[in-house]
Design a protein that fits this description.
Layout: H1 2-29, E1 43-45, E2 52-58, H2 63-78, E3 83-89, H3 99-110, H4 115-124, H5 126-129, H6 136-146, H7 151-159, H8 161-178, E4 185-188, E5 191-192, H9 199-218
Parallel strand pairs: 2-3
Antiparallel strand pairs: 1-3, 2-4, 4-5
Helix pairs in contact: 3-4, 3-6, 3-7, 3-8
């Protein structure tokens, strides 16, 4: 009889362990369960209720991403209330050794509601920190001070595993769902596009997406 209860206890413990392992794995894979949709963890510029979504997978050290920065700023003004702009990390660490550190700085600033302020600063000063071989963190801390951030929190968040995990979650969503392998990569309403070269090229695609969304909303 005692043997029966011992075996039963082992089975129950094993099932409980399996339950929690499955639950943990599910929560890890659902960091962004639907990368085509905008989640609460995404960094969004513009009206979050806009009918059209433009997602950018980008690398702060990427010269190409920097060249698109003013184009996107123009589009944000032009399509205010019509398009929401989402930034997702995709640091190409093999060729841009400072990219992940810059992403950390943006995320740490984001934890104090200053993600896009740091985002803009990083692109505007890319030539400086992007060429640095040492003391990148010191430069990012200078930017954080300029933004008026709590430096104790910024420094702790900058080094944290949680911030690294947040960046890596974006990278995985880009790879697994959209086959991202270069930056910048743009997604309009869940579909990867060929990068336009200017505001006019982007506008043509966004106008089409807005018209499509408007038609769909009016008939549903």
């Amino acid at each position: 009889m005692n043997r029966f209860w011992i075996i039963l206890t082992i089975v129950v413990v094993g099932l409980v362990g399996l339950f929690f392992m499955t639950k943990k794995n599910t929560s890890q894979t659902n960091i962004n369960s639907d990368p085509k949709a905008v989640s609460e963890t995404d960094h969004v510029r513009g009206d979050k209720n806009s009918p059209v979504t433009l997602i950018e997978y980008a690398d702060f050290q990427c010269p190409g991403c920097k060249s698109y920065y003013p184009i996107l700023k123009s589009l944000e003004s032009k399509y205010e209330g019509k398009v929401r702009f989402v930034f997702r990390h995709f640091p190409l660490i093999q060729i841009h050794p400072n990219a992940f550190a810059a992403a950390r700085a943006a995320e740490a600033a984001g934890n104090q509601d200053k993600f896009f302020e740091m985002h803009d600063k990083l692109y505007e000063t890319q030539d400086l920190w992007g060429q640095a071989t040492t003391n990148q963190q010191a430069l990012f801390e200078d930017y954080a001070k300029e933004l008026g951030l709590d430096m104790t929190k910024f420094t702790a968040d900058y080094k944290s595993t949680a911030v690294a995990d947040r960046i890596n979650a974006d990278v995985e969503s880009g790879k697994q769902v959209f086959s991202v392998n270069s930056t910048p990569t743009f997604i309009i309403d869940g579909e990867k596009i060929k990068n336009p070269t200017d505001v006019a090229g982007f506008s043509k695609l966004l106008d089409t997406a807005i018209e499509k969304a408007t038609t769909y909303n009016s008939t549903n």
